[in-house]
Amino acid sequence: MEPARNNFHFEDLLNRHHLKKTAPRLRVLSMMSARNAATSQPDLESVMNDIDRVTLYRILNAFEEKGIIHKVFDLNGTANYALCSSSCDEGHHHDEHLHFNCTQCKNVYCLDDLHLPAITLPPGFEPQGFTLYATGLCPKCSKKAVKK
């Protein structure tokens, strides 16, 4: 019963952002919401091999433009995507939280409860967004390191 509830939630999300409810879009949302870390396009391609690369790229691009997902880069510079908060919308991402890059498993985590402090820039600078990264070991990798 839970998947139908999530599917309804995703259909509503697509409606609110004026996007067609297609099976590939619903699958991408479902896959991303099931993960506890941000995911890259190649990772999505590996588990969604029935959705071609161009279609997946267009879905991710549309979701980012509409404020459904945000992009965060891992330690190798690869773009990863995570679901946005409900306060994000088209052209206005509010994902100013800490992004944690695990140096062991290479996962990127959004730590939504840790928001960036207020930053005042010098006159003439107009910020369009801020990103703060932390690196280290995630809880899973920390436990593995202690056992060694």
TrEMBL record:
CC cofactor note: Binds 1 Mn(2+) or Fe(2+) ion per subunit. Binds 1 zinc ion per subunit.
Ranges in a coiled coil: none
UniProt keywords, alphabetically: DNA-binding, Iron, Metal-binding, Repressor, Transcription, Transcription regulation, Zinc
GO biological process: negative regulation of DNA-templated transcription; regulation of secondary metabolite biosynthetic process
Family of the protein in this entry: Belongs to the Fur family.
GO molecular function, one term: DNA-binding transcription factor activity
PANTHER family in the record: HYDROGEN PEROXIDE SENSITIVE REPRESSOR (PTHR33202:SF22), ZINC UPTAKE REGULATION PROTEIN (PTHR33202)
UniProt source species: Mucilaginibacter ginsenosidivorax
Reported cofactor(s): Mn(2+); Fe(2+); Zn(2+)
Binding-site positions, Zn(2+): 102, 105, 138, 141
Protein name (Swiss-Prot/TrEMBL): Transcriptional repressor
Matches recorded under Gene3D superfamilies: 3.30.1490.190, Winged helix-like DNA-binding domain superfamily/Winged helix DNA-binding domain
InterPro entries in the record: FUR (IPR002481), Fur_C (IPR043135), WH-like_DNA-bd_sf (IPR036388), WH_DNA-bd_sf (IPR036390)
Keyword Electron transport applies: no
Binding locations of Fe cation: 93, 95
